[in-house]
Known about the structure:
The chain has 201 residues and is mostly helical. The chain has seven helices and no strands. The protein has one domain. Residues 180-201 are annotated as: Disordered.
Amino acid sequence: xxxxHSTQQHQGPSLLVLGPTTAAVFGFTxxxxxxxxxxxKQFLAENAHRLPTTVQGWYFxxxxxxxxxxxxxxxxxxxxxxxxxxxxxxxxGLEEVVDSSLRxxxxxxxxxxxxxxAKTKWVSGGVAGLGLAGAAGWYYRLSRHTAAKRLFLGFxxxxxxxxLITEHEVDMLIFVAQSSPTGSDTSCPGAPSTxxxxxxx
Length: 201
């Protein structure tokens, strides 16, 4: 039981690190591409009336364009990556706080609490999504109609994300129970038994 509980408890911190990092990398890549394209079009529009007429002029034109595109892409990537990483970290952190509170209550219920505790992820994910959508609506000063839609969307997406985490955690608990040398009955209460009684032929 202690081994399965330890495995379950360590799912949160690893996800709190992996989630924001992955989101930041994805956001940096997306921001880099979009900001680079925008900077390239902007540079062409600003210099359309003064195109170079010599080979040396074209060389410096392309060099300046590449520099501005690269610099704008890096800034856009860092900005988008930081924003997406922070929002993801805030969601996962809030979800972990809510889920820890729910687990503490469920684990006092008795046998099978550990596996049932893993199933609270969809609830904590929905609450975290709802809270984050509310914070975003307040920060961006959304109208009531738009904010209501964002609240519903945040709750729905948060619940789906929590449900996906639940499936992963339940699989991990069953795996630990099956691989435990003392058997699944003592390692993870509530997990399906993997031992079958031998019947004489």
